[in-house]
Write a structure and sequence with these properties.
- With 516 residues, this protein is α/β, with parallel strands linked by helices.
- The chain has 4 domains: 126 residues, Rossmann fold, CATH 3.40.50; 156 residues, Alpha-Beta Plaits (2-Layer Sandwich), CATH 3.30.70; 93 residues; 106 residues, Homeodomain-like (Arc Repressor Mutant, subunit A, Orthogonal Bundle), CATH 1.10.10.
- The chain has 25 helices and 11 strands.
- The strands form 2 sheets. Strands 6, 7, 8, 9, 10 and 11 form a 6-stranded mixed beta sheet that branches. A 5-stranded parallel beta sheet has the order 2-1-3-4-5, with helices on both faces.
- Helix 3 packs parallel to helix 4.
- It starts with a strand and ends with a helix.
Length: 516
Amino acid sequence: MNLLLVDDEEMTRQGLIENIDFESIGIHNIKDCKNGKDALLAVKAFTPDILLTDIRMPKMTGIELAKEIHQIFPDCRIVFMSGYSDKEYLIEALKLKAVDYVEKPIVLEKISDTLKKAADEVLKSRSTSKITENADKVIKSTSHILKSELALVLTKPKFDNNKFINLVSLTNFEILATFYVITVVFKICDADVSIARETLTEITESILGEEKNDAIYTFKGDDAFVVTFCFKNKASVDARCVVNFANSLLEKANIKMFCSIGNAYPVESAYNSYQDATINLVAGFYKGYGKIVSVDLGNQTYDFDLSKIQAFEKCLIGKDRETAIHILKSIASDLKNYPATLNAASKNYFCKMALLIVNLKEEYNIKSDKEYAENILEVIFKFKTLDEIVDELIKEIDGFFACINIDSENNIVFKIKQYVKENYTHQLLSVSEISDYLGLNMSYACKIFRMRTGTTISRYITNYRIIESKKLLLLHNIAIRDIAVMVGFQNSNYFGKVFKKIEGMQPKEYRNKNML
């Protein structure tokens, strides 16, 4: 049921929206406007069942607005609000057959009761049958709305038997308390929701009409389409027809969606079927779009092995593209066997792989999208399926290898950095040793490194040693003199001088400051 709320005071509008339990009244959609002119524009795309409006407003009074709305939507119930006791307004309100007139300051209980009264009138009006072409259209539209509300009732944690019975009688939909239900939930991903809703409604009507299945459906939230199948008893439950429907809708709709099917439950426990399906929708991340998630996901989760990330890094450093991609795909393939694994845990794991590529690009001095690199975690987490993440990482891997194959100078810089990383602990590590290892002329190696990084190889070695020493200084159980040797300095005195020159303080001061 739709409510159009019009008041020039934003505080009043927000106060009503936030403090009234509209769901319990039967109102599921609310459109609020600050004046009558805006309201008339809004109803071009919004059909109000109830108009709740202030009387005295700029541009157009509530009475004038109500007259316009009554012309367009003669069945719309009208409730007026006003801080003034104006007899002329009251007379006009009576002429428009307003449901009630609520005085300001507003008492929430009073206005809730009034809206409930209006909602009841709307429901009663919808159930009235007129043998005219126009009435037939209204009844057909109303029946659809009521069936949608009935389907919505079956997704609530607390089963409202009175509302259920009332809606069943109004819709003439055959469903009794002895029936069993199975709920199917579709999650709409990456689509225009309004277009998706129209498409899903049309195709669902077509499939249900062809198959002669007893089912009702509704939309819940922005992206959930819920279809509830009804069976006369437990013995007549036909899960196969539900699966066939789901597959048919996924195929014909051509919309990116996840789909999950709940177990069969008695009508009064319909929420359990809805909950089964909703909870298991998370496995759509592993299944992918257009696939049905079964109820039994198991409880085993994937064991994230960091050694695979290390192997992946080794392949990147060793320029083994094929094996790097094979490792990535095999991890993804294994993950699909453990759909109970938290999506966030999987995304975090792949973030580590993505960061490896970003960091290696930096070490190679490969120019990359700075904003992309800084937001790589957000990039990975925005993807809704595992396959999308794998495709993104393969694209990054290919970009990485394309750059290092083209730029030999960046390759030299990377190899120098990698050699320092692996040998910085050796006290005699020198530029000459590194040049010999790479098979390069020493002056050429120094020139390329400085040109690409802005620093010398010797200074890079020293800075790298200081960086590693800072990590060790945070550990209480290692003496500073031992740390000096561990990172490649000949003695602690020289280590102290170099450390102070770079960090502005002695190693001991750094330790005391950062261990607090």
